[in-house]
Amino acid sequence: xxxxxxxxxxxxxxxxxxxxxxxxxxxxxxxxxxxxxxxxxxxxxxxxxxxxxxxxxxxxxxxxxxxxxxxxxxxxxxxxxxxxxxxxxxxxxxxxxxxxxxxxxxxxxxxxxxxxxxxxxxxxxxxxxxxxxxxxxxxxxxxxxxxxxxxxxxxxxxxxxxxxxxxxxxxxxxxxxxxxxxxxxxxxxxxxxxxxxxxxxxxxxxxxxxxxxxxxxxxxxxxxxxxxxxxxxxxxxxxxxxxxxxxxxxxxxxxxxxxxxxxxxxxxxxxxxxxxxxxxxxxxxxxxxxxxxxxxxxxxxxxxxxxxxxxxxxxxxxxxxxxxxxxxxxxxxxxx
Amino acid sequence: xxxxxxxxxxxxxxxxxxxxxxxxxxxxxxxxxxxxxxxxxxxxxxxxxxxxxxxxxxxxxxxxxxxxxxxxxxxxxxxxxxxxxxxxxxxxxxxxxxxxxxxxxxxxxxxxxxxxxxxxxxxxxxxxxxxxxxxxxxxxxxxxxxxxxxxxxxxxxxxxxxxxxxxxxxxxxxxxxxxxxxxxxxxxxxxxxxxxxxxxxxxxxxxxxxxxxxxxxxxxxxxxxxxxxxxxxxxxxxxxxxxxxxxxxxxxxxxxxxxxxxxxxxxxxxxxxxxxxxxxxxxxxxxxxxxxxxxxxxxxx
Amino acid sequence: xxxxxxxxxxxxxxxxxxxxxxxxxxxxxxxxxxxxxxxxxxxxxxxxxxxxxxxxxxxxxxxxxxxxxxxxxxxxxxxxxxxxxxxxxxxxxxxxxxxxxxxxxxxxxxxxxxxxxxxxxxxxxxxxxxxxxxxxxxxxxxxxxxxxxxxxxxxxxxxxxxxxxxxxxxxxxxxxxxxxxxxxxxxxxxxxxxxxxxxxxxxxxxxxxxxxxxxxxxxxxxxxxxxxxxxxxxxxxxxxxxxxxxxxxxxxxxxxxxxxxxxxxxxxxxxxxxxxxxxxxxxxxxxxxxxxxxxxxxxxxxxxxxxxxxxxxxxxxxxxxxxxxxxxxxxxxxxxxxxxxxxxxxx
Lengths: 336, 301, 347
Fold this sequence. Notes:
- The complex is a heterotrimer.
- Chain B is an all-alpha fold.
- In chain B, 67% of the residues lie in helices and 1% in strands.
- In chain B, strand 1 and strand 2 form a beta hairpin.
- The longest helix of chain C is centred in the middle third of the chain and has 18 residues, at 193-210.
- Chains in contact: A-B, A-C, B-C.
- Chain B: InterPro entries: BP-dependent_transpt_permease, MetI-like, MetI-like_sf.
- Chain B: This is ABC transporter permease.
């Protein structure tokens, strides 16, 4: 069975308790990740994209955050229903994660080779010598120059880009089938960012693993992702093949985001950004939570909460959570 | 309306998870309420007590010597806490003692706080050799036993409430200086200080508007923790005869008076001792709770 | 194509800013970081000069030196005919009224213990002659409205605003002294894309309304392309190429500029199949120990022996614009030399 998805998230809801009340950081999100594909999860701060990743990895901050509904099925097994110990092992062996800030994710008092080797020692029972050799091999694999010499360096002796490579090496150690990267290049310079995206794309192809790329930057993933999932205020608002979604955006939020990005080839025209600011999750607007910022909103939008649905005339896979997706796409509904 | 005006009245941004997790917890509300209530009772007693129950430090009443708590004195009044070796009402003495202890504590903290914060801010703000010199001075101060200093000053100036305050302030300014200095070091490199500097502000403006407000909360927390120590230190000095003179009977004086009668009149030393302990513990509790709420970083002080 | 060349408002010549490196134990000075190593540029009235570069390029230090937050080791900053690096503190304070700055982080750049109104009015507290105290309330309201904030929110504290609103507040503070030059130090980098676009539009409106001159510092080239009239590219404390923005983006001649442009993520890469992909290896070297000769040579695919020996001057090359490369050439002229796929850093 190769056509069943590797990861299938259904109606996932995550609740956070705050001093001021409870928020639904993720509210009924469903998506699939197929074997070997790259899914880009896109959204601004507060959209719930990172919380979704934390829920999949089982690393929600406790006790504030909690999965309250839905299922996360990995390779036929529901991660939320199964025995926690087996799930923990599965998450270590088959699902790996790379974070935004490599410096705070690495332990500053251990040598990087030791930290990479720990994956082999703990999960594979490798000897110290074998683990070290494997660590050097991995460091070479992720493009760290003079790996043999640098294996005994401490994290602070590496640059930001090199540290991110070390994090990727650790994530790759156990040959995961799914790699989740949460803003992996946000803290890096553009030239280094390009290196890391290239590395992730190469590794995915060579290892045949599936990749989930979480980012706020619609540009960085365009080259490497197969499909896109856009999130807003804890909901999925648009999904589909990345080229289809970018070229034929059928949700006003997606369109607004695209219009907010200054174009490198069309200088000095006035940007047409999404107006207003992301909503307060404690006090979400009624109906479609995007309606107060939406140029297309009608009375219906403040009452009737749209669901993610296929769009007439577009591929079945392309879905949008907008009542007026077809009109938005056709440009028929002029912004009011 | 241009689109640059569209932020008008929009609500604050959605709380992102980190903010959600860090959402202000009302840490230690119970402790704060309890300790404040106890301290409040002490303060009321210290302010109004001696006024309601008169106390005369030179009066003696030989017939009423060493009466146990709850006895009736010769003039028919009730001695709730008993009487001491010269027949004075212990309750009145304890109330008077509360007034002296709290007054000494507050005065000491004000003096130590002003000196300490001033030195800490100057050291942290100007840095370099001035910082080095002032902080070495603080180190020297810490290695010098305050009892020794007290003996020295008492021998030189004689025991008085003012001298006690001076001695204790000299032994306590260092904590304030360190807290203020570390707060200055954290604050002075913040962007908003640079932003104010680019407006053309001079040092005094920056210290007053940016640095001192940032010091306020941690300094208050430290003051609450320290006041217990100060009251205890005052009692110790008075117990040793180096503190307040017998004419102003602080708790330490009363405890010392009872020392020779522990066998047959336990209450003379014990009751002021309990009063002292309860107040010191309450301040400690309040200080800890305030620190947990406002500034967990200070935990090691 | 741009405005007629008039007297520069701000003129920076051979500016150097260095930081001492101290040993951990004895605090002895063991070396120097050359954060800004000989930078010259002019800022003309009403224009926007974009200053781009990666971390370690010294662009923020340059801005901080121009505005006086760091001390220049050598070189001059001349504003409106007055030389600032040798000016008295009083002269400097007066000049600072005309040069203001917008900071990157909308969270740490606002004093958390003061209200929006107090933050904006602080400038007048320092310079009482600009706005009399009785007019503060009205002027605060005007400024808040001007940057798109609700004037009735003047009594709110910074934490009660969103990130975008806080950045608007930072802009209002920078405008309080009616400056001629505003330095935007990564002013939109910390914002979400949609908010970033709103703030960019606001900055454009303010420039048009108030005739402001911007020194716009950013690492994001698409943003710089959008706002700048001219662009200077910095690498390891030096300017490597400077030109009108159309020139820089269409006809870059320095390899670093070419690589930087190529690395900018574009939203629809499939629309530009002809776009060259140059991925340079490695990281920016440490400014404490910069390479000899050309500072970019350790990451450059064109580097020859001469690059290690002779530092290329920033001068007009190919008859186009100033570029600091011995082998300056247009990109289309260099096919086959593209270091495509070279992931292993040089060195």
